[in-house]
Specification:
With 237 residues, this protein is mainly beta. A 7-stranded antiparallel sheet has the order 5-6-7-8-9-10-13, with no helix packed on it. A 4-stranded antiparallel sheet has the order 1-2-3-4, with no helix packed on it. The N and C termini lie far apart (90 Å).
Length: 237
Amino acid sequence: MPQNNPLLLALQKKRKGYVKLIIVFIFFVLLFSLTAKSQTVFGIPPEQVIYQINGDLDKDGIDETVYICDVPASKDGLAITRQLLIAKTVKGKPQLWYKTAIDHIKNINLPRNKTIDSLYISRNCIVLKQEKFLGGRYAEEYTHRFRFQNGNWYLIGSKLRSIRNCYGADVYEINFSTGLINIDFIPDGGCDDEPQADSVVATHRSFKHQFKSLPLLNNLKMGENNFVISGKQSCYY
C-alpha cells in the first residue's frame, strides 16, 4: 500500500524535521530581534552612546543615568545630532525622564568639530565640558552646569575659554544663580616665532547682573549664547 511505502514515510519524516527546524530558526530570530531592541538606549543603538554616567540628580537618594548620544542626522552619517538623555529608575526599571538636543554638527570630518572633554555629576548637577575647534589658532572650551529645579532643567553656571594661540584667552565665567560674572584675559606669552608684545597684559573685570530668569537647558545652543551688560559689555556662554 502507498501509505506503507518506506521511502514515502522517510520523506514525510524528513519534511516534518525541516518544518521543526524552520520554526526553531524563526523563534530564535524573533528572540534575537526583541533582545537587540531591548538593549537600545530608548531606541538609540548602543554604538551611538558616547558617554554614560550615574548620579543622584533630584536628591531622592536614587541614581539617575545620563547619556550623551551622537545620532546620525544625514544619510551619509557625516552630520549628527548630539542628544542628552536622562533616565529615572521607577519601580526598579529605567524610564526616560528628559531628552533634548544639545548640539548639531554638520560635518564630523571638518576642523570645526565639537568634542566632549568630560561629563560628570557634582552636587546634584550635570557638568558638561565641550571643546569646539574653529580651525587655525582658534578654539573654544565650554563648561556648562545644569540643575533640575522648579520642574525643569536650567543652566546655573557657565565658563567659556575663547582661545587664540600665540596671543591668549578670553575667559567668561558666569554664575546665573548669584549673578556674579568674571571676565578675564590671560595672555599666553606668544609663540617662538611671534613673541608677545609687552603691552599685552592680563586683565580682570567683575560684574553683578540680575537675571530675570535662568536659561533653560533645551534653549542652549553651543557657541550661540550671549547677553549684554549695561549696554556695552558682551558676555558669552
